[in-house]
Amino acid sequence: MSLSVKHLLGIKELQTQDIEQIFQTADNFKQVLQRQIKKVPALRDTTVVNLFFENSTRTRISFELAEKRLSADTVNFSASGSSVSKGETLIDTVNNILAMKVDMIVMRHSASGAPWFLAQHVDASIINAGDGTNEHPTQALLDAYSIREKLGDLKGKRVTIIGDIMHSRVALSNIFCLNKLGAEVTVSGPPTLIPKYIQDLGVKVEYDVKKALQNCDVANVLRIQLERQHKPLFSTLREYSLYYGINKDMLDSLQKEILIMHPGPINRGVELNSDVADSANSIILDQVENGVAIRMAVIYLLSGKTALGE
Ligand code: CP
Fold this sequence. Notes:
Elements: H1 16-34, E1 47-52, H2 58-69, E2 73-78, H3 90-98, E3 104-109, H4 114-119, E4 125-131, H5 137-151, E5 158-162, H6 169-180, E6 184-188, E7 204-205, H7 209-214, E8 218-221, H8 237-244, H9 248-254, E9 259-261, H10 274-277, H11 284-303
The structure holds phosphoric acid mono(formamide)ester (CP).
Phosphoric acid mono(formamide)ester is lined by residues 56-60, 130, 136, 139, 263-265.
């Protein structure tokens, strides 16, 4: 049991069978997580560092929990409070950490491509926990896994990704992952937030959000990433919410049930109203729960271990 890659840098580099193997392994770990003792000794000889150069709540906690559930030793690094503020480079930072006998690196960085750069300079396996506007592979894996859990095989399932597609690493990784699994992907949102090249990735574009919702089984709603928008791309958040925000009236008007997803953090009242985020249609907290099993599976499969040691 192993993946075709040494690192998990992006979904783009994965084979479909890698994704299937991650899902099957996550199925086993989900069972472990239902037990009273939610732990296996598989990685008790492995040390993982979580290198976060950018803020995170879900991904960081989820990776740390996944590592602990696998009995790995974990070390957490935040750029703030570190010697990065004194000018230390990424490579020097990582080589100093690796000198302390660390086996695997989980990294989030604001620069697109940072994990690929690191992979050329160090021997340890690297897991990309989100790089700039490029990829967030474990988010896409847990998203696809959560759809599969609710709706079965993804082949032919219609998934609409709504919102700030332009600045979203979640959108790009989801597109790669859903395409590999045979789902039909549509993106929707304001034209200023949908890149012109997007159709080249094998997705449809529907600027009318109501039509996009009407024609999907799953809506994955994305956060408006104001921190990455260096010029105004829509008038006001109120206007965005009015034309592109998802509310209960819109869902009720569909006269069918669809799944609502969001990678978090949610801007409540902007891209998603609370009456949708907290509704029976929402599987947002299922996504978070599944994130731990998916990350356990990724870490375990990249470690090259062959037994859970239960
Ligand atoms: N989904 C996600 O990446 O959330 P965080 O930024 O809180 O990790």
